[in-house]
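Milestone M4 deliverable, item 7.
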Amino acid sequence: MRVRLGYVAIALGLPHTTSSGNVTYKYYQKLKAEEKINKLKQVTYANLMALKQILEYNQKKEIHFYRITSALVPLGTHPEVNWDYRPIFNVEFKMLGDLLRESKMRVDTHPDQFNVLNSLDEQIVQNTQRNLWFHVRLFQDLGYPHPKMVLHVGSAAGGKKVALERFMDNFRRFPDEITRCLILENDDKSFTAKETLGLCQKLGIPMVLDVHHHLCNNEGEALKQLLPEILHTWRGEALPAKIHFSSPKDGAKDKKHADYIDAGSFVEFLELCQPFNQDIDVMIEAKKKDSALFKLADSIRYLRKDWIWRDASTFEL
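Output delivered:
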């Protein structure tokens, strides 16, 4: 069983480097006509160059799994701006895509919580579709062959049974270009791992298990009983099953993420997975980002000296 560790968006090992530089719509409106596009181009270019630095850093540090920020292109999905950034930066996108292919790095995205595919408000559903197109086109511009974006099930309005039906109905009327990229994650307050698993099975798409969310939100289901079916949703996929792992900041069921990962709990989880002998990629969702990944790796080496390390972030049980 091979495990690869990844992290989210910001590399703390690269101080003052961010691929999420922003231009607010309020600020954008205050600019003169000729300044608007120049400002958007300036910040987007800086973000793309920062992403290049981060990907090169990951390659150097032997990190093979990374989540790209959803804020790469400022106002890229704003309906009142609607600027055509893709041809402007086609060279930069190709460069980044070449870097991903060269390094064989796995990347994905996690559209923010405002994207609610099963909202009762049709305008929110349409906004969600527009935002998800942005992610699809990003993968297209990068030439990335395994595009995946993580969503939560979303709204429980009207009761969870009705909300799950609403999700399926909306999912089936979304374009194939979007739905083939979607993977669903259980959340910490509404839809449990068991409920999310059932939805993924009905739709025939992979499920991302968030272990922390399961601890905060379950109906007594043992993770050990759910794991085989969760992992099975990834059968036939080009990449291994994806897991999210974080540690509570304060108390067992605190929903906030801690700075680092509790290595003992992480090792216990991996040993729960071990009998299934299926490779997994684990996204570390900790405030200290790549620093938390490296600290966790050091702790695992100490706690399980018989596990075999292939490089700085990859090991086998």
